[in-house]
């Protein structure tokens, strides 16, 4: 038998094209009539913000590689130039689909329910007088027209700002003159109009209407909107600096002047004005996108939020669950002493995690708090409690990853704030990002020193915890406590523990662990013993990991993967990936949890992790993978995975041809896993509220225990309802 060449580029999908496929799945949600209308509006806006970040980082990276004539190839065999061309081609196709969705589906649909996005020509007299006053009273003093001539060069255009390009001439003179005008971002882009409950106009429409008042004695020949997306990737040469914080701050300033990667212009722009913008902004022709509608669709999220009186067009609210033992009325450390606690956010309140830090900050027996922070909210309660702990005399050590992409400025701010409050702050490690999610509380008790730990799959961000799905574990397990202590010693000093008791740490450790488990699965399959591997992650792109899965599949191992975003693995390759299935769930919440399950002939091993199977997570980041060993919690994770795998409403299945297809639901009761989890949380929360006076506050109530909760697949529990 010929040896299989797992390096064959035909076995891999290009990472960037796979990401564009993911954004297409998000775009599908905006066209899905089973979603509430205003949520569909938001989904369309999300496709834009997704694309902007993709261009700022991934496309920018390809552009740089192409510019230096990098001769390498990706796993699928494409050069940087080939990838850039393919990405631009597919991005143009996606742009057409975005604006077709806006103009033919979304705008007509919201107009039918009395929500109108108006042009100036649509306004009533009252509304016209309103925008006229708004321009003179609010906008006019702020606007700054920038002439572009021999004495005044073309102005710098900031990243992701909305601008007007003008062609004009002096009255009585036919010579064309040019100017630019930035639409000020300090004003809301969506302006609510009088005269109707939900009439709106975009800010740039108001500016365009009265722009001639900024150019007295000149005639305006043409006004066209445009926007640039620049290379915003942070390039910190850490080996050249002893002060990482200062270097990051310097790079933040330089980043604002990155090369233009994408230029968006109105579709009706004249050839003359378009050519001028392309020349002045030094943009490649493939990177120019002509837009048939309002440029920058992120305004749609603001529009949906500004609408009043239409709660029926939004997702129905649900009530997240919080065990009484983990709330502010109870001693959280006593609860964790009794047993471990598993939380599935947002269905379980993130408040329990915040409460863990809050109580640690004021508990007289707590000696130290150690924590890693990758992304936090703009007004983080966790930061406040860490500062309070330091002021209360506790030893507080916080690793703030100042290289967290697009959160660098926010994290630098919080790092400085934590230092001012008396915390010891570590600014990440040279050459590595710290992406692990760890909290350690050291407490003096009658029996001696005890360590309490929180480990999670997601960031300590109280805002995103409402719409990112993540899983966290609170435990006082001694071996895990020792491991986490060693990790913090490694992060803050020079300690290199020879081994970890329970945890597996990247770089290297998680790759080695999963490779070892897949090798074990291969041995089971070759021996004819039943074996199955189940994984859930955001992205799967590491070539070696995919090759190992191919090897396992070739041996007969059943592999089930839930991959929300990028997936470079191909299914259905004969003799290579016959036993691999890939699902992707895109719905109301962003699937962010990482789960790794290995079933060796009925012996199930369950792990959670901060890491995706991407090369950066496995090789260039500090990440953690940890076991869930308490039997009821192990079962709960298995139940969570099963419900997601059996989802037939928001799941797409990766086909052998590389496309994602909806699940065939004929003859099957609909199961939307996110809706199911939200419904179960609401039932638990309401039951707890109504029976709180009867319950033991320290009694453990798992959210999805097979004894207490209905089977997620039983027909009677699927109400059809809102499939959002």
Automatic annotation (TrEMBL):
Role, per record: Catalyzes the reversible transfer of the terminal phosphate of ATP to form a long-chain polyphosphate (polyP).
Matching PROSITE patterns: PLD (PS50035)
Enzyme nomenclature, EC number: 2.7.4.1
Protein's name in the database: Polyphosphate kinase
BP terms from Gene Ontology: polyphosphate biosynthetic process
Positions contributing to Mg(2+) binding: 375, 405
Active site: 435 (phosphohistidine intermediate)
PANTHER family: POLYPHOSPHATE KINASE
InterPro entries documented for this protein: PLipase_D/transphosphatidylase (IPR001736), PP_kinase (IPR003414), PP_kinase_C_1 (IPR041108), PP_kinase_middle (IPR024953), PP_kinase_middle_dom_sf (IPR036830), PPK_C_dom2 (IPR025200), PPK_N_dom (IPR025198), PPK_N_dom_sf (IPR036832)
EC supergroup of this enzyme: transferase
Family (UniProt): Belongs to the polyphosphate kinase 1 (PPK1) family.
One GO MF term: ATP binding
Biased composition (Acidic residues): 713-724
Cited NCBIfam families: poly_P_kin (TIGR03705), PRK05443.1-1 (NF003917), PRK05443.1-2 (NF003918), PRK05443.2-1 (NF003920), PRK05443.2-2 (NF003921)
Organism encoding this protein: Lentilactobacillus farraginis DSM 18382 = JCM 14108
Pfam families attached to this UniProt entry: PP_kinase, PP_kinase_C, PP_kinase_C_1, PP_kinase_N
Alphabetized HAMAP family for the sequence: Polyphosphate_kinase
Superkingdom to which the source organism belongs: Bacteria
Positions that bind ATP: 50, 468, 564, 592
Boundaries of every PLD phosphodiesterase domain copy: 587-617
One GO CC annotation: polyphosphate kinase complex
Stretches with biased composition (Polar residues): 695-708
Record key words, sorted: ATP-binding, Kinase, Magnesium, Metal-binding, Nucleotide-binding, Phosphoprotein, Transferase
Modifications the protein undergoes after translation, according to the UniProt entry: An intermediate of this reaction is the autophosphorylated ppk in which a phosphate is covalently linked to a histidine residue through a N-P bond.
Cofactor(s) the protein requires to work: Mg(2+)
Residues forming coiled coils: none
Catalytic activity: [phosphate](n) + ATP = [phosphate](n+1) + ADP
């Amino acid at each position: 038998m010929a040896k299989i060449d797992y390096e064959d580029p035909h076995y891999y999908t290009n990472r960037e094209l796979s990401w564009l496929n993911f954004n297409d799945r998000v775009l599908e949600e905006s066209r899905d009539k089973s979603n509430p209308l205003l949520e569909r509006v938001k989904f369309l806006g999300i496709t834009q913000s997704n694309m902007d970040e993709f261009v700022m980082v991934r496309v920018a990276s390809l552009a740089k590689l192409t510019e230096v004539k990098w001769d390498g190839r990706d796993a699928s065999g494409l050069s940087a130039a080939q990838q850039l061309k393919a990405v631009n081609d597919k991005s143009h196709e996606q742009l057409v689909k975005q604006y077709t969705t806006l103009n033919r589906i979304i705008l007509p649909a919201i107009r039918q329910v009395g929500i109108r996005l108006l042009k100036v020509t649509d306004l009533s007299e009252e509304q016209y007088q309103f925008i006229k006053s708004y321009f003179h009273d609010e906008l006019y003093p702020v606007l700054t027209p920038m002439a572009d001539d021999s004495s005044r060069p073309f102005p710098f255009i900031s990243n992701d700002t909305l601008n007007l390009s003008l062609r004009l001439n002096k009255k009585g003179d036919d010579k064309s003159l040019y100017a630019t005008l930035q639409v000020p971002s300090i004003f809301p882009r969506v302006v609510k109009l009088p005269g109707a409950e939900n009439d709106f106009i975009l800010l740039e429409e108001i500016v365009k209407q009265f722009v001639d008042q900024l150019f007295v004695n000149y005639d305006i020949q043409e006004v066209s909107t445009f926007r640039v997306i620049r290379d915003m990737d942070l390039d910190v040469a850490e080996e050249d600096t002893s002060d990482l914080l200062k270097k990051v701050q310097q790079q933040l300033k330089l980043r604002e002047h990155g090369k233009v990667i994408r230029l968006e212009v109105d579709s009706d722009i004249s050839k003359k004005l378009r050519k001028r913008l392309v020349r002045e902004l030094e943009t490649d022709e493939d990177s120019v996108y002509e837009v048939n509608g309002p440029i920058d669709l992120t305004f749609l999220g603001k529009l949906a939020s500004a609408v009043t009186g239409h709660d029926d067009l939004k997702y129905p609210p649900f009530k997240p669950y919080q065990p009484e033992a983990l709330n502010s009325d109870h001693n959280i450390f006593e609860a964790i002493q009794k047993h471990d606690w598993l939380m599935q956010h947002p269905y379980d309140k993130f408040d329990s995690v915040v409460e863990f830090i809050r109580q640690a900050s004021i508990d007289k027996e707590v000696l130290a708090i150690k924590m890693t922070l990758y992304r936090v909210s703009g007004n983080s309660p966790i930061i406040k409690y860490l500062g309070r702990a330091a002021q209360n005399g506790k030893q507080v050590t916080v690793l703030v990853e100042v290289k967290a992409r697009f959160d660098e400025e926010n994290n630098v701010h919080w790092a400085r704030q934590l230092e001012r409050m008396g915390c010891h702050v570590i600014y990440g490690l040279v050459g590595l990002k710290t992406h692990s999610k760890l909290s350690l509380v050291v407490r003096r008790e009658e029996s001696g020193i005890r360590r309490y730990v929180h480990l999670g799959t997601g960031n300590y961000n109280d805002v995103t915890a409402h719409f990112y799905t993540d899983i966290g574990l609170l435990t006082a397990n001694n071996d895990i406590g020792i491991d986490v202590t060693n990790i913090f010693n490694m992060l803050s000093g020079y300690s290199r523990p020879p081994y970890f008791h329970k945890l597996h740490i990247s770089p290297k450790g998680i790759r080695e662990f999963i490779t070892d488990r897949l090798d074990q699965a291969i041995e089971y399959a070759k021996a004819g013993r039943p074996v199955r591997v189940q994984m859930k992650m955001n992205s799967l792109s590491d070539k070696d990991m995919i090759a190992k899965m191919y090897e396992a599949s070739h041996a007969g191992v059943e592999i089930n993967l839930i991959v929300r975003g990028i997936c470079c693995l191909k299914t259905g390759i004969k003799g290579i990936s016959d036993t691999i299935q890939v699902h992707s769930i895109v719905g109301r919440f962003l699937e962010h949890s990482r789960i790794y399950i290995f079933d060796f002939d009925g012996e199930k091993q369950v792990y959670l992790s901060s890491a995706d199977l991407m090369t950066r997570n496995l090789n260039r980041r500090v990440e953690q993978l940890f076991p869930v060993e308490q039997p009821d919690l192990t079962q709960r994770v298995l139940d969570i995975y099963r419900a997601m795998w059996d989802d037939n409403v928001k799941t797409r299945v990766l086909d052998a041809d590389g496309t994602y297809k909806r699940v065939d639901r004929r003859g099957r009761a609909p199961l939307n896993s996110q809706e199911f989890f939200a419904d179960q949380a609401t039932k638990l929360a309401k039951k707890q509220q109504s029976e709180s006076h009867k319950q033991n506050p320290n009694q453990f109530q798992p959210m999805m225990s097979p004894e207490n909760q209905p089977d997620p697949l039983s027909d009677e529990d699927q109400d059809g309802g809102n499939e959002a």
